[in-house]
Design goal:
The chain has 19 helices and 24 strands. An eight-stranded parallel sheet has the order 8-15-16-17-18-19-20-21. Strands 3-2-7-22-23-24 form a six-stranded mixed sheet, covered by helices on one side. A six-stranded mixed sheet has the order 9-10-11-12-14-13. About 1% of the residues have low confidence.
Length: 566
């Protein structure tokens, strides 16, 4: 009988995340033709035929596939499977970092490329690698994507020396006499990245497929890669090039891409974004890369443009309304301009261009002043004359976000501006951020509950490889709001519940993708993107149980992309 299901899951605790009633539960789900066909024991049982695969959940939770709305897929693939690893396990101190780099084999291009050091754990970065491997170029990217360390040979090949000018929106760390130490931050990273040979496809392709398999094993079925394109040299490790963007298209065309991926293009890196570069990028045709290739836009699409409004607090490059850090700086926008007013005006021009192109803008803003300026610029871009082709329907959003004015969240809600933020970053880097920002500002960092109460479309994301892509850790971080050294406050007003966090990583993340009509919830007719957990969803008082809960089965469009069931 043709109405029989392809697969059913019974004896389950199904969290449908139905937008009409997110608390709606069921005990069984049926899948047919890549879509959810039925819910509930009676209807699902009737759909079981001789060829239907029947999975007994044994009481485990079934949830929509996790949608990581800010995951640097290309950079994370290289960090996990393409570079020498410098995480805490491999290099717990600076001496170990040097040892790992000294013993690493160069790649086929002759460079040693490493990733993962974190000054929140190791202490301030200095010129630790400057004199290592005198005959081999070495570059080591940090875990945040905002700093790198290079040795003298790498600096020589990039032409970086005492005469190298400072970079707008970036830092070339120097000795007392002006010589570079090898530490480059934010926009200055591009000085080195542009001199490096591109990552060959023979390295990148298997890394992408390996990470895809890993993400599916975590129950992740969708993600946004926030920044691929011609300015990739100024972001993370520089691997997110136009060639990488095209390689994703090849994987999709060859039916090897089972993740659903949205891409934000990058026309300017972490320093010096300007309207001219964005206008040239929009006119280049890059946004049409995947058109006319037979690629399903539900699988892979270019959604918009990533813009860096400022840097990060720990580098002193976040734009704050009040001084912060040991340097007692306000920071500034990293947008091109001679002063704050010029930079704000340029940001407005940039966002107007993106909006009028009918594309989505994802604006990186980590300081409260930068966030306020970005929100105001988005409102200005979407509230112009009615004949303008763009509209607030583009779903522009703030990435990370810090808020000094509580009214900003209300402005975001009323103007359809989204908010994508990262509780696990707050947990992992919280101790150093508390020192930089002070206790009061840190306590208000990432106002999750306030955003939900204001009606903002909030999603939670990993920002991998900055932190782990394991969404279970993100959920726990959102519920507990702890840091490495301190437990969260039980009455922290910005804590959210575990199920609110789940919604933020499923149906709310789908909203950012303009995709809530086909994914993010388990109701009949929706895409069968789901995962089966080994245990029921834990109550908030025991949310840490989620960390020991396994993903038994992951479906993407009804296709089993991970399973540990017989």
């Amino acid at each position: 009988m043709e109405d029989f299901a392809d697969l059913v899951i019974v004896n389950a605790s199904v969290h449908t995340m139905d937008p009409a009633k997110q608390s709606r539960m069921s005990d069984a789900v049926a899948v047919k033709g890549g879509r959810v066909a039925a819910l509930g024991h009676e209807d699902v049982t009737q759909s079981i035929g001789p060829d239907t695969q029947v999975v007994d959940a044994a009481g485990g939770a079934v949830i929509p596939g996790i949608n990581d709305a800010h995951l640097h897929f290309v950079s994370a693939a290289m960090a996990a499977f393409g570079y020498v690893r410098l995480g805490p396990a491999a290099a717990p101190n600076w001496a170990a970092v040097v040892d790992v780099v000294e013993s690493a084999m160069p790649g086929e291009d002759g460079w040693v490329r490493a990733h993962g050091w974190d000054e929140a754990l190791l202490g301030p970065a200095k010129g630790f690698l400057l004199e290592s491997r005198p005959d081999t170029p070495v570059v080591a990217f940090d875990s945040t994507g905002h700093q790198l360390l290079a040795n003298r040979e790498a600096l020589r090949r990039a032409g970086i020396d005492a005469a190298t000018a400072d970079v707008h929106g970036g830092v070339v760390a120097r000795t007392a006499v002006g010589n570079p130490t090898g530490l480059l931050q934010d926009g200055a990273m591009e000085l080195l990245s542009r001199a490096m040979p591109p990552v060959p496809s023979s390295t990148l392709r298997p890394a992408l497929l390996a990470l895809q398999e890993h993400l599916h094993s975590l129950g992740i079925t969708s993600l946004t890669d926030p920044g691929l394109g011609p300015a990739s040299a100024g972001l993370m490790d520089g691997s997110g090039s136009t060639a990488a963007l095209e390689l994703l298209g090849d994987l999709a065309a060859e039916d090897e891409l089972t993740l659903r991926i949205n891409v934000l293009m990058l026309f300017a890196g972490t320093g010096g974004a300007n309207a001219h570069a964005v206008e040239m990028g929009l006119g280049s045709g890059l946004a049409r890369t995947y058109l006319n290739r037979g690629i399903n836009p539900e699988q892979l699409r270019i959604a918009g443009v990533k813009i860096f409004a400022d840097g990060i607090p720990r580098s002193g490059t976040a734009w704050m309304s009040e001084p912060y850090g040991t340097a007692c700086t306000h920071g500034s926008l990293v947008i091109q301009g001679a002063n704050d007013a010029d930079r704000v005006a340029e940001l407005r021009r940039i966002l107007a261009l993106i909006n009028d192109a009918g594309l989505q803008a994802g604006v990186h803003a980590t300081g409260d002043a930068a966030t306020a300026a970005a929100v105001e610029a988005i409102v200005a871009a979407t509230d112009g004359p009615k004949e303008r082709p763009g509209s607030s329907g583009n779903r522009h959003y703030i990435i990370h976000g810090a808020f000094g004015d509580p009214g900003a969240l209300g402005t975001m809600a009323s103007n359809g501006i989204g908010y994508s933020t990262n509780p696990l970053i707050r947990q992992e880097a919280g101790d150093i951020m508390r020192q930089v920002l002070g206790e009061d500002r840190f306590s208000r960092h990432q106002p999750l509950q306030s955003a939900l109460e204001a009606g903002v479309h909030l999603n939670l994301a990993s920002d991998a490889p900055v932190t782990s892509a394991d969404w279970r850790r993100t959920v726990v971080a959102a519920v507990r709001r702890a840091t490495r050294s301190r437990p969260g406050k039980p009455r922290d007003p910005e804590r959210i519940t575990g199920l609110q966090a789940l919604a933020a990583m499923t149906i709310h993340a789908a909203w950012q993708d303009h995709a809530e009509h086909f994914k993010g919830a388990l109701t009949p007719g929706m895409a069968a993107d789901l995962c089966l957990l080994s245990n029921p969803w834990p109550v908030d008082e025991e949310i840490e149980k989620l960390l020991d809960t396994e993903v038994r089965l992951t479906l993407s469009g009804g296709r089993a992309v991970h399973q540990s069931i017989s």
